[in-house]
Amino acid sequence: MRPKASFGSPSERGVETVIKVCISGVPGTGKTTICDILSDRGYSCKHLDAVAASAGCLHGDEVDIECLNSQRIEAFAVEAHYAHLLDCRMVIILECGEIDLRKRLLSRGYPKSKIDENVDVQLSGILYFEALDRLPAGRILRIDTCSMGADEVVERIIQFVGGTDSINL
User: Fold this and answer.
1) What is the pTM of this model?
2) What CATH homologous superfamily does 2-150 map to?
3) Which of 69, 81, 151, 159 is the most core-located residue (most Cβ within 10 A)?
């Protein structure tokens, strides 16, 4: 799904931000796995593709970010490759080394062109820079998910956020 981005602060649109953490990254970096582990540990974590579909923010293969930002999504965390474009208090960008990422995407049946596209997106740092347009650098964390286990990634996220499921920062 492709995001249709919109910018402007939540206050400009009259919407209160209630998402504490947006988990982003190219496909194959572990977003869904990490969100599921957070949920298993009692943290509310939502898969944005499902939220977008149920809220009417999905048009063909394009996700309307403005539409999603107009929804009151209450969650400790949300995950999607476009999550960093949402109004949230912190962004976690999951990454993986190029060789491992290529292997993961190949095992999922991605064509070479799509693998190359996703590797290029990660190597360019575009997700970080898009997040930086919305938040200060101190509220963005990049994690290499290939260098540690999923439980370690979750612990690192909880440590960065402060370990509470409270919506308030």
Assistant:
1) 0.86
2) P-loop containing nucleotide triphosphate hydrolases (3.40.50.300)
3) 81
**Cα→Cα distances 57→2, 48, 49, 77, Å:** 12, 10, 9, 19
**pLDDT surpasses 60 at 4:** no
* Segment 16-37, tens digit of pLDDT: 446 789 999 999 999 999 999 9
Helix axes 31-40, 150-161, angle to 10 degrees: 70
- Per-residue burial over 80-117, b if 16 or more Cβ lie within 10 Å, else e, is bbbbbbbbbbbbbbbbbeeeebbebbeeeebeeeebee
